[in-house]
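Marked as duplicate of an earlier ticket. Keeping the data here for the record.
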Amino acid sequence: MLFTADFHAPHGLSNPHVQTLLPQLMPRASLRSETELINLPDGDFVELSWALPAPPDPHAPICIIFHGLASSVRSPRIRALLSSVTRMGWRAVLMHFRGCGKVPHRGPRTYHAGETADAYWVISQLARRYPNALKIAIGVSLGGNMLLKLAGEQGGDGLDLAGAIAICPPLDLAASADALNIGFARVYQRHMLARLRHRLTSLEPSQSSPVELANSRHRRLDTFWAWDNEITAPLNGFESATDYYQRASAGRWLDRIELPTLVLHAEDDPFMPRQMFTRLPTPSTCVRVEIAEHGGHVGFVERRGGLLRSWLARRVSEQLKAWSCVPSLTALDRSMPRA
């Protein structure tokens, strides 16, 4: 179901690009973390960043966060979420997608917006380690698309999660690739492609790889359509960028999600077309979509107590508290609580 978010941009700060860039300019949240490597079934690994201090109680609730494209624990947005969750007394952990942590990963595969197997494996490992802890997952941007696709694939009982929160997920990847090639959004596209090129050089060469990793032609791939067609698709078994976008976009799963889910979206998000949800299936009754008029892409900076603060961190904290208070309810009953 679609609802109006209660976010209100401060006077003079409603421009979508201002909102998108403001979190980069605000003071970074204080955060200590420790690193853990979790081996994957195919011989590669993912890197976890556990926020400190961790609660001593093994039953303390856990928040698992999945970052966006070319992001990491160093992102101000991710640090703000981890810090906010830790202050609530929760155990907070960020799963870095392959190659996004401090340690170069082993295989020639990359991560992508529809790669759900690694997240599923990590959640299953945490379920074994903390069987009695309430668990909530948060996905930011690309991580949000991945999380919603995972929730749709696994059904209501397929994941040891009590709920999921997706922040600005690009639910129609083809439409997002188009939007990022218009006007000022090209600046974001250029920045993210530069980071992807840098990370491509850290991949281990393989005779079986369909992509020549050390290739100067990669610098001429200046749009996501070109990059995903020449790099993402062949590295991950897709026929083309079109095939990748169709199969990896989570929008087509919205009406099949059985897990209590909150989606936060801004109508002016420069990474996506306006009125994006009009082209997608009607969300299931377990999915609450909150849409703000302003907010940019993972921006949502508000003025509170005379200071600029993250509305996202506040809204996420509200939802975590709401879900943690009703752990015994069914998925359908827990889909709508609001603190």
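See parent ticket for discussion. The longest strand covers residues 32-39.
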